[in-house]
Specification:
- By secondary structure, the chain is an alpha/beta fold.
- It has a five-stranded mixed β-sheet.
- The chain has a single domain (2-165), classed as Uracil-DNA Glycosylase, subunit E.
- The protein contains six helices and five strands.
- The longest helix has 24 residues, at 150-173.
- The chain has helices at 13-16, 24-35, 73-89, 100-109, 140-143, 150-173; strands at 2-5, 57-60, 94-98, 123-125, 131-135.
C-alpha cells in the first residue's frame, strides 16, 4: 500500500526527513497506522526514532513545501513524474490519497477519464488494477473540526488492508505452478 499526501510540511517532513513526522497531522496519521497494524509506533518524531512501517510506503504529490499548502499547477506538474516513477518502482496494489489534491494527482498519473469525484472512502480501480482510495487529509483543520475522526481514518486503512490482502490472494492463486525438474 502507498499513502499519497499533498507535500512535505514545512515544520514536519521538511524538517525531519520523513513524511508526516514531527507535526500534528502526522500524530493523527501514525496513530491510525499503528491501530491498523501498518506502523510499529503511534508516534513519529524523527526519521531515526525507530518507527517501522509494515507493508506501506508514504509519499507526496509535490516534493517541496508549497506556500500556504497550495501548490501551483507548475509545481504539481513538475513533481508528478517523480511520483510516477516512485509508484512504478513500488509493488503497490492500493493507493490511499489523503485529500482531493492527492486524489487528483493519482488520477492524472493513471489518465483516468472521466475523473471520479473525490470523497472520503471513495474507491476507484484503474485499468492497470491499482485501487485508489480517497481519504480526508489528517490536517488540523479536518481533525480539530471533526471532519475527519479516528474511526473514519481507521476504516479507510482497514479497507486498504482488506483490498491489498485480497489482491495478494488472487495473485497467489493465478501464479503458474513450478514444474518439477
Amino acid at each position: 500500500m502507498v499513502i499519497l499526501g499533498l507535500a512535505p510540511a514545512a515544520h514536519g517532513a521538511n524538517r525531519t526527513g520523513r513524511f508526516f513526522t514531527g507535526d500534528r497531522s502526522g500524530d493523527f496519521l501514525f496513530g491510525a497506522l499503528y491501530r491498523t497494524g501498518f506502523s510499529s509506533s503511534p508516534i513519529s518524531r524523527r526519521a531515526d526514532d525507530g518507527l517501522r512501517l509494515r507493508g506501506l510506503w508514504i509519499s507526496a504529490a509535490v516534493r517541496c513545501p508549497p506556500p500556504k499548502n497550495k501548490p501551483t499547477p507548475a509545481e504539481r506538474d513538475t513533481c508528478l513524474p517523480y511520483t510516477a516513477r516512485e509508484l512504478e518502482l513500488l509493488p503497490a496494489q492500493v493507493l490511499v490519497c489523503l485529500g482531493a489534491f492527492a486524489w487528483d494527482a493519482a488520477l492524472r498519473l493513471h489518465t483516468v477519464r472521466p475523473k471520479p469525484k473525490f470523497s472520503h472512502g471513495a474507491e476507484h480501480t484503474t485499468p492497470s488494477g491499482l485501487i485508489i482510495l480517497g481519504c480526508y487529509h489528517p490536517s488540523q483543520q479536518n481533525t480539530f473540526t471533526g471532519v475527519l475522526t479516528e474511526p473514519m481514518l481507521d476504516t479507510v486503512f482497514l479497507r486498504a488492508r482488506e483490498l491489498a490482502e485480497k489482491k495478494d490472494r488472487e495473485a497467489h492463486l493465478h501464479r503458474p505452478l513450478r514444474q518439477p525438474s
